[in-house]
Predict the structure.
Amino acid sequence: MATTATWTDHALRTLEDAGYRSGAARAHVVRALGRQDCCLTARELADQLRDGGDEVGIASIYRALEVLGELRLVHRMDAGEGVVRYEPAMPSGEHHHHIVCDHCGQVAAYEDERLEQAIDALADRLAWSVDRHDVVLRGTCPACA
Amino acid sequence: MATTATWTDHALRTLEDAGYRSGAARAHVVRALGRQDCCLTARELADQLRDGGDEVGIASIYRALEVLGELRLVHRMDAGEGVVRYEPAMPSGEHHHHIVCDHCGQVAAYEDERLEQAIDALADRLAWSVDRHDVVLRGTCPACA
DNA sequence: CTGAGTGCAAACAGTTTGCATTACT
DNA sequence: AGTAATGCAAACTGTTTGCACTCAG
C-alpha cells in the first residue's frame, strides 16, 4: 500500500480536527491499520500490536475502531462468519471488494470498474440515498480447487 | 411470494431425499421460512413460531438453518450488525440483494439485472470459482431522509 | 485541574454444543 | 430397536460496558 503514510497522517489529523485528544492506544491502532493492505479483525490487530511491542487493550481497540468508523476512516466489512473485519478507507473513496474462500476462509481483494458503474446506476434508480456498498463473492480459491 | 408452497415443498422434499428424518421442529422452521418474502433472523423466526403456537427451541432452529444452508435451501445474509439473517433460496437461482438503512436498520430488497451481469463477467475474469455473491447497499431510507 | 482516553474485568448477545429424552422409520 | 431429531441449559466467541486510573490539554 503506497499510501500508508498518507492514510495514517490523514486519519490522525482527522481525529484531531474532530476534537479527539491524542492517546497512545488509538494512535497505535491507527498506525497498525495504516500498514495493512487488506481487512483484518480486531483480534488480528491486537495480536499484531502485541507482537510489535505495543500492547493495547482489546476494549481500546474496539473503541478506536468505532470512532474511526464514525469518521469514515475505516470501513467495516463482514465476511459473514461471525467476525467483523476492518480496513483503512481512502479519503478518495477508492476501494476494493472481497472474495472469500468457502474452504480455507482466505479473503482476497479485487476491483472492478464495471461493477462500480452498475452499482452507481442502480443507486440512482432507488428511492434511497445510497452512500456505501459491499460486494462479497464466495467460492473456491485457486489453492483449494 | 407467489412461490411459497413451491419452496416449502421443494425444501421438505430435498431434506427427505438427502436422508433426513422428518421432525416437527425442522418442519415448522421450513414452513415459517416459506412464508417469508425477505430475510429474517433466528430470533424473529423463533418469535413468529411461538406466536403461531408452534414453539421451537432456539437450538433446533439454528440446527435446522444449518442443514438448510448446507443444502443451499436457505441463503445466509449478514447485514453487518452482528446478526445473521436467513431467507429461502429459490432453486432457480433467482435472487435479490439488500439495502440497509443506517438510521432505522430497515432492510429492503432490490434486484438489478445489470449488476448481476457485471458480477458474472467479473467472476469469469477471476481465477476463483465463484458460486455466490452478496451485494449490500447502505444508506438512508426514504422514511428517514 | 478536568475530563477524555485507557485497561481490566464483568456483562452481553448471538450462536453452538453436551446430554438426556422423544419419536421417526 | 436403533438412531436421528429435539429442547434445555451450559459453554463459547466476539463485542460492549462499568469503573477506577492515567494523562493530554
Chain B touches chain A at residues 76-78, 80, 82, 84, 99, 101, 108, 110, 112, 114-115, 117-119, 121-123, 125-142, 145 (CB under 8 Å).
